[in-house]
Amino acid sequence: xxxxxxxxxxxxxxxxxxxxxxxxxxxxxxxxxxxxxxxxxxxxxxxxxxxxxxxxxxxxxxxxxxxxxxxxxxxxxxxxxxxxxxxxxxxxxxxxxxxxxxxxxxxxxxxxxxxxxxxxxxxxxxxxxxxxxxxxxxxxxxxxxxxxxxxxxxxxxxxxxxxxxxx
Length: 167
What we know:
This is Myb/SANT-like domain-containing protein. By secondary structure, the protein is an alpha+beta fold. It has helices at 20-35, 46-60, 66-87, 106-115, 130-137, 150-164, and strands at 2-6, 12-16, 39-40, 43-44, 92-95, 100-103.
């Protein structure tokens, strides 16, 4: 899906608008290529991109070329990196149900966003398919002295949910 926009100079340009089904399909195509061994050293092979573009065009039409898909790949990689950075910090975790980053309390968010204003968007932004992004881009996990094991993050998240419900 394309949307007509105007740039700073007033020139008309077309921008791809990604719908949730497009995102989901694109990620599934990339995950399949990862499982097929076509993602090495942080990039897909030419064969993988050819397959991804062909399959994506078959489902969503001929307007989606390699450049459009690679641009979206880079945007997804940037989102994954930002989310990983957050959940690797002490006091943050991932909420699978709401598909967003959570913090143990508001002060954790306030302090982090004060020091890193660009991360404020993730306080309310959800992202579908984070698990797939972890498969595609890797998921090293936290390793600092204040890091928590995934099971500990899940337990803390359950406490967080109970606290929000007043239990």
